[in-house]
Amino acid sequence: MPTMDSDPNPDNPAASVSFFRSMPGAAKPAMASPVLPAVLPGGIDIPAWQARLLAAGVNPNRIASPDLIGQLEQAKTTTIVSLICSMLDTDPSVSLNAAIAESCTTDMAAGIDVLAKLTSAPAIWITADPDKPSDWFNEVKSRMAHAGLRLIPLRGDYPQTDPTLMLFTLLQCRLVPGKLPASKGVLLVDAAAAVAVGRCALSDSPAVETPLAVRDHFQRRTHLLNVPMGIRLAEVCDFLEIRNVDAVFRAGDFLRDLWITPDTPLGNGELVIHPTARHLDANPDPCIHCGWCLEACPTRIHPAGLLDAAQVKDLRAARRYGIEACIECGICSYVCPTRLPLLTAIRELKGASG
Ligand code: SF4
Ligand code: SF4
Questions:
Q1: 94 falls within a domain
Q2: 323 Cβ partners below 8 Å, 6+ apart?
Q3: What's the confidence (pLDDT) of residue 292?
Q4: Which end of the chain is more exposed for a tag (fewer CB within 10 A), N or C?
Q5: Cβ of 326 below 6 Å from ligand 1
Q6: Tally of domains within the chain
Q7: Given this model, what pLDDT does residue 24 score?
Q8: Do both 192 and 79 map to the same domain?
Q9: For position 68, which CATH number holds?
């Protein structure tokens, strides 16, 4: 079976779509059949489906696919006008959602079908990156069309998969960072979440496996895997022979700088893991007022001002500089030429403001 264990050129999109290999204990994913069953088992009752998903261990909750059970809870009292399923990947060297969409199209279409019926969403948006190789895009588009679904081309530039940006780009809808999309009448899932829901609908049995991408920054390799649901990160690293003693593990988008420990169970949270060397110490140099962080910030707020506010613990100034609109993407920290700890300062401010 083909694997994606090497990455000679991470900028080459042709190298970015591949298949999975299975860890012991995880079944190999069935390749997609273009046929979606016309009638899915189960009713279309939200509480019953919440219970069913929880019983199956399906409770996706990650940045690009926020708390599904919570979104369904809000859908009981909020009219859902749009269902968005995102097949986007913001890192060209880790195309997990693209690989899932290609290898599990039937399950994904079934999951979208269930969620559309549950919420009575009149509009369904399935976003796919048109910059992916044309054979991938056309193949997925044709399979989706077979299931009666249409793809919306949308580039996956980081941090496009953030719910706040996704809702604004597609629907010009302003979602406060950290709030669930359902509060704005939108149910948002990624491809992996749609597949998990679809498998629950089609098999009505507990989830036993989950897709996972490990971007090994030591070897500059990406591994796409099927792993047993709930497996600890340490076991996956052992399987992949990633044994660097001082490795740290970031989950999800690299720039968000969200660390997890080797004991973290995997499945419903972030599905992209970055083992890397320990981070460099914070730079004591001052801000040189270059303005790069302002130019790069996708929400057009003032990261350097937030850093100033953090240093004097001034929450009123932080609000003036726009902290409530920060999506914690980490781009400001990334572009800062003096490597100032902007994201860390912003998180401290947010923690202090409750
Ligand atoms: S983390 Fe930085 S770049 Fe990202 S939204 Fe917040 S201030 Fe802007
Ligand atoms: S990018 Fe860094 S040095 Fe430049 S203004 Fe922002 S915080 Fe200051």
A1: yes
A2: 301, 306, 309, 346, 349, 350, 353
A3: 96
A4: C
A5: yes
A6: 3
A7: 66
A8: yes
A9: 3.40.50
Name which residue sits closest to atom 4 of ligand 1, judged by CA. Answer: 329
Q: Are residues 26 and 170 in the same domain?
A: yes
- CATH at residue 269: 3.10.20.30
Q: Are residues 183 and 256 in the same domain?
A: no
Question: Does the beta carbon of 138 sit less than 6 angstroms from any atom of ligand 2?
Answer: no
The predicted structure's pLDDT at residue 280? 60
Tell whether 114 is covered by a domain. yes
Q: Which domain holds residue 303?
A: 292-352
Report which bound ligand comes closest to the CA of 290.
2
The reply to whether 198 and 217 lie within a common domain is: no
On whether both 262 and 296 belong to a single domain, the answer is no
- What is the tens place of the pLDDT at every residue in 52-94? 999 999 999 999 999 999 999 999 999 999 999 999 999 888 9
pLDDT at 284: 63
Q: Using CA positions, which residue lies closest to atom 8 of ligand 1? A: 297
For ligand 1, the distance from its centroid to the CA atom of residue 221, given in whole angstroms, is 28
Give the residue, by CA position, lying nearest to ligand 1 atom 6: 326
Q: Which atom of ligand 1 is nearest to the CA of 330?
A: 1
Sign of CA dihedral 46, 199, 143, 135: positive
Q: Which atom of ligand 1 is nearest to the CA of 322?
A: 7
For the Cβ of 255 lying below 6 angstroms from any atom of ligand 1, the answer is: no
Low-confidence ranges of the chain (pLDDT < 70): 1-20, 24-43, 279-284, 354
Residues contacting residue 346 through CB under 8 Å, at least 6 positions apart: 303, 306, 307, 310, 323, 326, 328
Any domain includes 10: no
The pLDDT, as a whole number, for residue 35 is 44
Are residues 233 and 194 both part of a single domain? no
Same domain membership, residue 300 and residue 231: no
Q: What is the largest CA-CA distance in the chain?
A: 63
Is 330 a pocket residue for ligand 1 (Cβ < 6 Å)?
Answer: yes
Structure confidence at residue 22 (pLDDT): 73
Query: Same structural domain for residues 64 and 139?
Result: yes
Whether pTM > 0.85 for this model: the answer is: yes
15, 133 contact by CB (below 8 A)? no
Flag whether 4 is in a domain.
Answer: no
